[in-house]
Amino acid sequence: AYFSNISKLLGEGEDSVPQTMTMATIDYMAPEYGSEGIVSAKCDIYSYGVLLMETFTRKRLTDEMFTGEMSLRRWVKESLPHGLTEVVAANLVREERAFFAKMDCILSIMDLALDCCMESPDKRINMTDAAAKLKKIKVMFLDDAAATS
């Protein structure tokens, strides 16, 4: 997967916390970057979580439905686990043989996305753990899909 990895441009390592006055699209950046200009690897993981949610919901942060207190993150969080079919792109949740395996996989991915987008940088998962979780989700999906075939 491709990551902007803005933290590597301005500092080294997971714990690097350089500051910058450069502002990007606030919606896609971690709250601490938008409000304080702090850049770290934790900002990258936040953006990755947003990317995951956008990919599977087919909604952008700038969608007109996200106004006031409602955000993509909140919409996804409030849908889990029972309303998942309401937020996931319709073409991903068609009834088919591997439907339940697919829904378990998407639920796990949405949980991961929310772990990436925690408000506090200290509570966010790191990229190494996120990649490991994605690999486990893939293996679980392939095993479950094969069992239903």
TrEMBL record:
One MF term in the entry's GO annotations: protein serine/threonine kinase activity
Protein kinase domain residues: 1-142
Gene3D superfamilies listed in its UniProt record: Transferase(Phosphotransferase) domain 1 (1.10.510.10)
UniProt-listed Pfam families: PK_Tyr_Ser-Thr
Transmembrane annotation, as ranges: none
Cellular-component GO terms for this entry: membrane
Protein name: Protein kinase domain-containing protein
Species of provenance: Citrus sinensis (Sweet orange)
